[in-house]
Amino acid sequence: MRAIAQFEFGSADVLRVCDMPMPTLRPHDVLVRVAATSVNPADLRARRPSSARSIAREFPLVLGYDFSGSIVELGSKVAGWQVGDEVIGCPSLMRQGANAEFIAVDHRVIARKPKALTHVEAASLPLVGLTAWGALVDRANLREDQTVLIHGGAGGVGHVAAQLVQLLNARPVVTCGSSQSLAFCRDRLGLNTCLDYRAEDYADRLLESTQGRGFDVALETVGGDNMNVTMSAMAPLSQVVCIVPSAIDGLRSGAFMKSITVHYNMMTAPLEYERQPEKLGENLATLAYLVEQGQLRPVVDRVWPVSEMAVAHKALEAGGVTGKLAIDVADGWLN
Amino acid sequence: MRAIAQFEFGSADVLRVCDMPMPTLRPHDVLVRVAATSVNPADLRARRPSSARSIAREFPLVLGYDFSGSIVELGSKVAGWQVGDEVIGCPSLMRQGANAEFIAVDHRVIARKPKALTHVEAASLPLVGLTAWGALVDRANLREDQTVLIHGGAGGVGHVAAQLVQLLNARPVVTCGSSQSLAFCRDRLGLNTCLDYRAEDYADRLLESTQGRGFDVALETVGGDNMNVTMSAMAPLSQVVCIVPSAIDGLRSGAFMKSITVHYNMMTAPLEYERQPEKLGENLATLAYLVEQGQLRPVVDRVWPVSEMAVAHKALEAGGVTGKLAIDVADGWLN
Lengths: 335, 335
Description:
- Two copies of one chain form a homodimer.
- Chain A is an alpha/beta fold.
- Chain A has two domains: 2-125 and 268-332, Alpha-Beta Complex (Quinone Oxidoreductase, Chain A, domain 1); 129-264, Rossmann fold, CATH 3.40.50.
- Chain A has helices at 41-47, 119-122, 126-139, 156-167, 179-188, 202-208, 226-232, 270-275, 277-292, 309-318, 329-332; strands spanning 2-6, 16-19, 29-39, 61-62, 67-74, 86-89, 102-106, 111-112, 147-151, 171-176, 194-196, 215-220, 234-242, 247-249, 261-264, 300-305, 324-328.
- In chain A, the strands form three sheets. In chain A, strands 3, 5, 6, 7, 8, 16 and 17 form a seven-stranded mixed beta sheet that branches.
- In chain A, strand 10 (171-176), helix 5 (179-188) and strand 11 form a beta-alpha-beta unit.
- The model of chain A has no long low-confidence stretch (mean pLDDT 93).
């Protein structure tokens, strides 16, 4: 089969089309013909050289942590799925990814593709949807009427998280770093409170947006110094879900004095696939259901054919994306 | 009335016996004649000069965040209490403390003194008991059969936390730094797994004590570099309750990769007294009930008369305490 693989860590230029053996099915796996995938920060982290790499990688390495496609073969212990079913999923970081004609994936982590979406749209949902749902619902236990801070409201995780907060009857406040992103959040997502983090009085306006009470929940997607900004805007006994490996100064940040709970949340972590694959599948089915009900929609910013994967990586690295960058795998190989 | 007060921040030598006006009752307060108090690390932090002081302090400052005594007067909005009732409590850090003949305290945060304990024993329970209960039950949601790491198992919070873990049918593993403390944990508390953190193979033995699975819950009472030791011994998706204002390196510590939840927990934080005083009172009543049932017992290491408060402070600073350092306030003024 054809795949986009890399034989060393490096810039987007290490990505190349090559022939790979067909994936071998484990008993719980289905084999999926990939119709579309998308690009996530997880691809960039896995692709680059890193001194802090926490997952062992072998070459040739195939990235791609989202897919939409159709089942072409079933493993020996697979129940509930048929050849021909159209499915979506967020495959494990520990195995070869979806930037290929076929992927072998544990059937417990997949869900039916929402009919309302194209493959390209559907492939833009799993990783960011599972990240946002896992963070807000499973970790922070988000409840009605809570006020939620979402950094990067126009980003992949951010734009889905903001929608989820609204449909859970809580109140999102998003931050953005460009007028384009602010317009996207207001006009496409219908959000009322969108703050420009470049503004001089940003920290004040953040706290004002909660009438001075502080946020009940925050989704920390930036890390570094931003963590202190987040902590200063939180309410006592509030919940911060940190999806980046940021450091926290308990005293200086105010986290200790306010008895804040910090949930580190590494989505696509090996542990989730080993410990609770069914939970990932259930969450993804819930997200697909919300899409079918018209309550949730991943927004695709741009689409490339799979042969231009390196261009898509560079676009994500350049920033300024509103929504998701998707990859059409069905036709792209012909280019 | 007489009190132990200080007129500047400094060493234990700033503490002196002096005359103070009687406390003024707020509507929800009761006035308690203090029979006994105890010394906690919170006293040392409040007494010393600090660049990181988070609570404003005015002189003369009266410390003392535990008491056992009897009610002598009721505020206008107090219900459920009578003059003469023997009560215990952990007063707010925001007000004058219990190192005095009398203290004014919100009736919602106090509980009946367990009859099974002397005043000196009873005054050793509230702060450490509320800290341990709040951390393990309210924050970490401790469940049966979980494995719990408790640093400083012979210390004030540690020795009560270890007992609570046992009576909640979970499994405590305690760490100590002296043979005396290890003997205390084994012989007085009946704990099976007590590890010496001075041992060379300490980190290995910590993980072995969980059969390699890692801890479900940890009570972090040390902070600093110890946080990395704690994180390395935790299971994925586990809970660390941090009762010191420690910093966390999300990546290097492994907290991110294991999706660990860190609950900062500042006991005696103003917010608990402002937001949920009834909860503190309920928790203290539960602790008193467990004492009456013979399931929990604070251990008093040494007792001093109140006039020797500075000696007690120095003893806590010197370390090596097994259990609590208590102060007899009823008679001590005569010395």
